[in-house]
Every structure is written in C-alpha cells, then in structure tokens.
Design brief:
The chain is 39% helix and 23% strand. It has 211 residues and is α+β, with helices and mostly antiparallel strands. The protein has a single domain, classed as Yope Regulator, Chain: A (2-Layer Sandwich), CATH 3.30.1460.10.
C-alpha cells in the first residue's frame, strides 16, 4: 500500500510538471507600453508579450508566493503588470548596455519561481550557431541562472529559477534571483551584439568580457 501511495504522488508531480509548459515557452513581443525599472529608480517604457496561460493559483502557499512577488516588485520600484489571470508579471530593466524586457512567474502547483530577462534583439538565423557557442561559453562558471536560446526564432534570454517546495518564497529569495539575472544579461549584452552584428567570434567576444 505504501509503494502505491508513493507512486501516485510521483505521478501527480510528473503530471503537474508536464502541464507547466511555461517552464519552456517562447515569449512573443507585441507593442504596448508598460514601465521599465531603471537602476536609478526612474521609469522607462518597454515592450510586452502575449503568451499561453500558466496553471491557476490553487494552493495557499502558491497564492502567498505570488502575492509576495507582487509586493516585492512594487516596493522595489519594478512597476509590475500582471498578465491576465496568469501568475506572471511583466516588467523591465534599463541597464548600462540596453533595455531588457523581464518576466517574473510563480508556478503555484510546482512551488517554483522563475525570472526571465530577454535580450532586446533576436539572433538572425545565420548567426544562431555562433550565438549558441557564445551563450555556452558564457554559461560555463555561472553560479545563478543561465542563458538559453530558441533556435526556432533566435530569442535569447537569461533564466533564473528556484524551487520553494515546502518553504516560503521570501523577498530575499526573490531579490537573489532577479538581480543576478539582469546584471548578467547587461554584462554580456555587448558581446552578444558583436557576435550578431559585428561578425566577432564567440571566443573573442567572451574573452573581451571576462578578461
């Protein structure tokens, strides 16, 4: 009987994971005007997206986590905009090297927090192999988060995530996921642009950034 219960619990978790396509989806940008967080506290306008819905908020811990996320983003000056009934917020960041769209999400049923930072440009098809090498070299040694690219359309983004199962999502955990992501994207963005538009090799671009 014990083995049956364990297997049922495992299958439920696997089903929840499989239904959470939001973990790996392409973000599509449309022109609207939400706000962007500037490092100095000023706001700028940015682009928005449309996308498939995430799972509804069902359990109390997930609801608390999503509420905590919204409160933190408001308090820290991110001017978040909730996307419909999703457990996602849209915001942005204006760094030293460019403006970036950002998306913060709570997967309530899985008790996971995800934060995405999108590069302001997509890699043209003929540069995607070079960009893939660039982000692979960039990812090596990163401690929090990673770069990823959609080979279908060239979208490049940085993802930071954490699992808060059986725990509370706190403002400190949220901050620890958000700021390394935006700062890392801002740091590597010039190299990414040189690989895409300047014909620079991935190795040369990484060496310029990391040396």
């Amino acid at each position: 009987m014990c083995c049956v219960l364990i297997r049922i619990g495992f299958l439920r978790k696997l089903d929840l994971w499989s239904r959470s396509s939001i973990i790996r989806t392409g973000l599509r940008i449309s022109l609207q005007e939400p706000f962007t967080r500037h490092p100095t506290g000023t706001t700028q306008k940015k682009e928005t997206i449309t996308r498939m819905s995430s799972p509804d908020v069902e359990d109390n811990r997930g609801k608390r986590a999503f509420a905590t996320l919204g409160e933190y983003l408001e308090r820290d000056g991110w001017h978040p905009q909730r996307l419909g009934e999703d457990t996602r917020y849209r915001t942005g960041f204006l760094g030293e090297n460019g403006q970036m769209a950002c998306y913060a999400q709570v997967l309530a049923e899985l008790e996971q927090f995800l934060f995405y930072v999108l590069a302001p440009v997509k890699a043209p098809e003929d540069t995607r192999s070079a960009v893939a090498e660039f982000i692979t070299r960039a990812n090596y040694g990163l401690r929090i988060g990673n770069f990823e690219m959609d080979f279908a359309d060239g979208e490049v983004r940085y993802k930071s995530s954490l699992d808060f199962e059986d725990a509370m999502l706190t403002p400190e955990l949220i901050k620890g996921g958000i700021y390394p992501a935006v700062r890392t994207m801002d740091r590597y963005l010039p190299g990414l642009m040189r690989v895409i538009y300047g014909g620079q090799s991935a190795l040369e671009a990484i060496l310029e950034i990391e040396q």
